[in-house]
Amino acid sequence: MKASEESTVTRVDKQKRNKHRYNVHLDGEYAFSVHEDLLIKYRLLKGEVVNKEQLQTILEEDEKHRAYLDAIRFIGVRPRSVKEVKLKLKQRGYEPPLIQGTVDKLLDQNYLDDTQFAKMWAEQRVTFNKKGKKWIQAELAQKGIDRSKIQEAVEGIGEEEELTSAEDLARKKWPTLSGEEYEKKRKLYAFLMRRGYTPSIVGEAVKRITGESIEEFD
């Protein structure tokens, strides 16, 4: 970008790799690229004259636009927590104020909601991934979810729902275990504990699979 007060748009080319972005040339030299929405908004057409202040505004708005689109694409793969989006934008090289502004906009538009995210995550993990509440709590904490929201999410998992999850997992694991009956039960108990199920859930799941409670072979 030139240091003169005003510059003239001499050429505008659509990028080959990104059909929504355009390369803008000022006074015969490449100056910057911009999203098509801003190209239209600011009428960056050949022959148009822009000053330094306008250019600065355009570049700042384009960066905000890029950050927003990067976040939307990231969320589009699957729901994300606020912390995950912030980390992704940081990895993309955006500065903290811009990251926070982008997140605030997504929160206002309900694209981000840690309460709903935590509930969805908990339900999905217990039902399809066969994880217990303790495991889920640890995962949500890593994703930056507030403790109260984590508690609300795991409380939404019914005891029978968690027990069914543990029992399903135990039935698949049981035939793969080696050793005497006593040792197999010990291994099954330890396996379920590592998956984040509480001792009471594990004990009941083992009992349903083996016909004996954990106390009976302690």
What's the shape?
Answer: elongated
Any idea what the CATH superfamily of the largest domain is called? Answer: Winged helix-like DNA-binding domain superfamily/Winged helix DNA-binding domain
- CATH architecture title of the largest domain: Orthogonal Bundle
The CATH class assignment of the largest domain is Mainly Alpha
End-to-end separation: 76 Å
Averaged pLDDT: 93
Strand order of the largest sheet: 3-2-1-4
Protein name: Regulatory protein RecX
Main location: cytoplasm
Subcellular location: Cytoplasm
Keywords: Cytoplasm
Plain-language structure description:
This protein is an alpha+beta fold. It folds into 3 domains: 6-108, Orthogonal Bundle (Arc Repressor Mutant, subunit A); 114-155; 159-217. It is built from 10 helices and 4 strands. It has helices at 36-41, 52-77, 82-91, 96-108, 114-127, 133-142, 147-155, 159-173, 181-194, 199-210; strands spanning 6-14, 21-26, 29-35, 49-51. Strands 3-2-1-4 form a 4-stranded antiparallel β-sheet. β2 (21-26) and β3 form a beta hairpin. The longest helix is centred in the N-terminal third of the chain and has 26 residues, at 52-77. It is elongated. The model has no long low-confidence stretch (mean pLDDT 93).
